[in-house]
Automatic annotation (TrEMBL):
Pfam families: MFS_1 (PF07690)
Record's compositionally biased regions (Basic and acidic residues): 316-335
TM region(s), chain numbering: 25-42, 54-76, 88-105, 126-145, 165-183, 190-207, 219-240
Keyword Membrane: yes
Protein name: Major facilitator superfamily (MFS) profile domain-containing protein
Region (Disordered) residue spans: 316-390
InterPro entries in alphabetical order: MFS, MFS_trans_sf
GO terms for MF: transmembrane transporter activity
Taxonomic source organism: Hermanssonia centrifuga
Subcellular location: Membrane
Gene3D superfamilies: MFS general substrate transporter like domains (1.20.1250.20)
Keywords recorded for this protein, A-Z: Membrane, Transmembrane, Transmembrane helix
Topology term for the membrane: Multi-pass membrane protein
Length: 390
């Protein structure tokens, strides 16, 4: 249920605007909450008091981690303008420094660390968490920007959501199957290795998508990527919990969720920076075209991208003055040139016909003259026959 909830919220937030960005508007979230409320049974345990929680909570580590992540995301946002400006470099540098300080604090703090260092000291758990980060980066980037691709090609918001079904439903279906495979075999490593191979293949195929791709390619490439993406929703968590002692189960699971959320956030920010940078570079090559490439205007940008060819043609016609007259004149020149190359000339009139032919020509004289004018030729005048008296 959570798997359906995440992509739906991402697309709902994107297509419906800033006011609808929170998850409380997602109906699937309400269903998931109701299921957990009524059916989740936890083992009884002795809880801690609020005072004990406050005494153990690592406030310094929390501030450093959140501050570092926020600064890095701000830097990515400013990179839409340029990567070399101070407003881009400063937040990125400050963010990296804060994350380094947070790492040192997590290692030496006497309180309960936000991210236990032992998770990264063990090779298995370190690999799993790094894998989770890049998996979230790839998945959320695809879920967020693939609808943009479909909308640029002319699909509506609803149509783009329908075209995303191979990606979303495919990942959900494969996630359930991979969980059953791990349960039956008791081995999670082969599933993870297989998943990453398929992810690389699927996303490599998606780089081939363009405006000329047919519907079969759009469905097949997304389905291949979903095959790899879906296997990595639950399998890493199983491996992480199997590698950590029971006392660290809650902390490990919380860290797993934090890393996944962080990866998705970074992935969307990087995607926005790349899209804005390339779009600005391409738009600058089109004279007289001005498009707002900021993240806030992404909805409007999608609609404008579809109209770029029409806008360019309109601008070129405006420069030419009267487009209709120019098109007619150009067509006439081409037609005349083709006639000259083919050696086509108007046939002369037959001056030796009988009286019936003369009568027919007489009645169609004006019509022949008009046709000759339209063809760009001069009709030869009628030569009357000379009669002699006996």
């Amino acid at each position: 249920m959570v798997l359906f909830h995440q992509p739906v919220c991402v697309k709902f937030r994107y297509f419906q605007g800033v006011k609808a960005h929170t998850q409380r508007f997602s109906p699937t979230g309400g269903v998931a909450f109701a299921i957990l409320f009524f059916f989740l049974n936890l083992n009884p345990h002795q809880g801690k008091t609020l005072k004990q929680h406050i005494a153990e909570f690592d406030f310094l580590g929390f501030i450093l981690i959140v501050g570092g992540v926020v600064c890095i995301l701000i830097g990515f946002n400013f990179s839409e303008t340029s990567w070399s400006t101070p407003q881009t470099i400063a937040p990125l540098a400050i963010g990296v420094a804060l994350l380094i300080a947070a790492t040192l604090n997590e290692i030496y703090t006497s309180r309960a660390p936000i991210i236990p260092p032992r998770l990264f000291k063990v090779r298995t758990t370190a690999f799993i968490l790094v894998s989770v980060f890049f998996h979230a980066l790839a998945f959320f980037s695809g879920a967020y920007y693939l609808p943009v691709y479909f909308q640029v090609l002319g699909s509506s918001a609803t149509g783009a959501g329908v075209r995303m079904l191979p990606y979303s439903l495919g990942a959900a279906f494969i996630s359930a199957i991979s969980g059953q495979v791990v349960t039956k075999t008791g081995r999670w490593r082969p599933v993870m290795w297989f998943s990453w191979v398929i992810i690389v293949l699927g996303y490599g195929l998606m780089t081939q998508l363009d405006e000329k791709s047919n519907n079969a390619e759009k469905v097949l490439y997304l389905l291949v990527a979903a095959l790899g993406i879906g296997c990595l929703f639950q399998t890493p968590l199983i491996g992480l919990q199997a590698a950590m002692p029971l006392r660290d189960m809650a902390t490990s699971t919380a860290t797993f969720g934090f890393i996944r959320t962080l990866g998705g956030t970074v992935g969307i920010s990087i995607g926005q920076a790349i899209l804005s940078g390339f779009l600005r570079h391409k738009v600058q090559q089109i004279p007289g075209l001005d498009i707002d490439t900021s993240a806030a205007a992404l909805n409007q940008v999608v609609r404008q991208i579809k109209d770029i060819p029409r806008m360019v043609i309109k601008a070129e016609r405006a420069k030419e003055g009267d487009p209709e007259a120019g098109a007619v004149e150009k067509g006439e020149k081409i037609l005349d040139a083709n006639q000259t190359q083919l050696g086509v000339a108007p046939a002369p009139g037959d001056h030796e016909g009988d009286e019936e032919e003369k009568a027919r020509r007489s009645t169609s004289k004006s019509r022949t003259s008009d046709a000759a004018d339209d063809a760009g030729t001069i009709a030869e005048p009628e030569v009357p026959k000379q009669t002699t008296k006996e």
